[in-house]
Write a structure and sequence with these properties.
The protein is mostly helical. Helices cover about 80% and strands about 0% of the residues. The longest helix has 12 residues. It starts with a helix and ends with a helix.
Length: about 50
C-alpha cells in the first residue's frame, strides 16, 4: 500500500476505494459508511485496499 493510498484512506475513503476498485458495490458501501460516520468509512477503506 503506497503512502498516497494511506493518506486517501484517511482523508477521503470513498475516493481511495474508487481509485482501486472503480464504481461498483464496494464504492457504494464505502460511500454509505462514510456518510454514516467518518471512522466506519476509514476502516472499510483500509480493509478493502489491503
Amino acid at each position: 500500500m503506497s503512502l498516497l493510498t494511506i493518506i486517501l484512506n484517511i482523508i477521503l475513503p470513498p475516493l481511495a476505494v474508487f481509485l482501486k476498485h472503480g464504481l461498483g458495490t464496494t464504492f457504494l458501501i464505502s460511500l454509505l459508511l462514510t456518510l454514516i460516520g467518518w471512522l466506519p468509512g476509514v476502516i472499510h477503506a483500509f480493509i478493502v485496499n489491503k
